[in-house]
Amino acid sequence: MKALIRRRGAIAASFALATWLPAAPVNVTQHHNHASRDGLYIDSAFTPQAAASLSRDLNFDGTIAGNVYAQPLYIEGGPGGKAMVIVATESNNVYALDAGSGAIIWQRNVGAAVSLTNLPCGNIDPLGITGTPVVDLASRAVFFDAMTTPDNGTTKKHLIYSLNVDTGDTNSGWPVDADATAHFGTTNFTSSSQNQRSALAVLGGYLYIAYGGHYGDCSTYHGWLVGISLDNPSSVLAWATGVGRGGSWSVGGVASDGVNPFIATGNTGSTTRWSGGEAIIRFQPSPIFSGLTNDYWAPPNWATLDSEDLDIGGSGPLIVDVPGATPSKLVVALGKDGNAYLLDRTNLASRHHKWRKAGSKLRENPTAQLAFTFGF
Question: Taking the model in full, what pTM does it have?
Answer without folding.
Answer: 0.91
